[in-house]
Specification:
seven-stranded mixed β-sheet, four-stranded antiparallel β-sheet, 55% strand, globular
């Protein structure tokens, strides 16, 4: 079974920075896409940022929610992703869940890490 280890959440002041990390192990299939989704108050998870690597060309593409563009950067090294979050706002608070996507073989979610932004 895939194991996802998430870290980096915590309490930060408004305008501060955090860096989230997610590492996948025990994978049987190639991970096409890794990313972070945010969940608040029992709502559905919403995309924050994803990164996809094409195994045939090694080309990497990223996708960001409009609300975080310019403030958040996602990067990938094999089966580990880092997400640098700067200038954090209260709207950025929530539980951040890592997701890996094996395309036709499905995907897996991590347990999540809490991000709290104080005013």
């Amino acid at each position: 079974q895939v194991q996802l280890v998430e870290s980096g959440g915590g309490l930060v002041q408004h305008g501060g920075s955090l860096r989230l990390s997610c590492s996948a192990s025990r994978t049987k299939f190639y991970i096409y896409t890794m990313g972070w989704y945010r969940q608040t108050h029992g709502n559905e998870r919403e995309l924050v940022a994803t990164i996809t690597t094409d195994p045939r060309t090694d080309v990497t593409t990223t996708n960001y929610a409009e609300s975080v563009k310019g403030r958040i950067t996602i990067s990938r090294d094999k089966d580990t992703i880092l997400m640098q979050m700067n200038d954090l706002k209260s709207a950025d608070a929530g539980v951040y869940c890592c997701k890996v996507d094996f395309r036709q073989f499905g995907g897996e979610w991590g347990q999540g890490t809490q991000v709290t932004v104080s005013s």
